[in-house]
Amino acid sequence: MTLGKIIELLNCQIISGAVDLQLDIKSAKASDLMSDVLTYSGPGKLLMTGLTNIQVIRTCDIAGICVVIFVRGKKPLIETVELAKTCKIAILATRLSMFEACGMLYSNGLKGVTITAPAQ
Amino acid sequence: MSTVAVLSQTFNIKGGDFVNAGEPACKIRNILREIGINANVIRRVAIAAYEAEMNVVMYARQGEIRLKITPHKILLEIEDTGQGIEDITLAMQPGYSTATEEMREMGFGAGMGLPNIKKNSDIFNIHSTHGKGTRLKLTFKLNGKTKK
Questions:
Q1: What is the ipTM for the molecules in this complex?
Q2: What's the confidence (pLDDT) of residue B3?
Q3: Which residues from A are below 8 Å from B109, CB to CB?
Q4: Of B22, B112, B134, B3, which Cα lies nearest the Cα of A117?
């Protein structure tokens, strides 16, 4: 799915960064827990999250994620936007909830990152 | 036989500094990229460095990361002065955490840090003295069989 299509489906506002509408996004992740994003850091260039602090961008940078979408209409802190510019990570925002945003993308064909959680 | 380091660099970490946390890990990642290390190894080193750094920021007063690169391996030593770990076996259990609300609000402190560092490194060594500090020694092999 192209990033342009994702922006259209979620009615995203572009907060910062050079957004390549043709960027091919094969899978996405959604989490408010950065530890989990790092633990299950398979492929996936897109993260949806409700957290807007600076460590979200650090986590994306380390995990190889180049687009972050803030859900529930959350606005990032200024330092978050500044760091995202430095790290060349695009920031988008949607007013949809995490559940709705994920459902919208999934039902339109975007898959998640398959993870194998350790057995309990 | 001692191993000669081809490249060696030290980064300081300040306890409680959530704004700059992660900068050393990103710098280490950039160094490894510049010298053309395998992308999978870079990802594992960067994640381990970042998690270890967050532990120092969250739990210690100050610390440092020492990066050493030899022809056959990458070594990361993370040493801090702080409260140390009372029970390492417990701290290694996924999900066990003594994090504060502030740490959790940052998206960390879920008790995944140490297990994730271990998962990403080829050799994981931890030593901690309660009330004094913690030292992690991580080895990442550059050839032969490495983790995926």
A1: 0.83
A2: 57
A3: 35
A4: B112
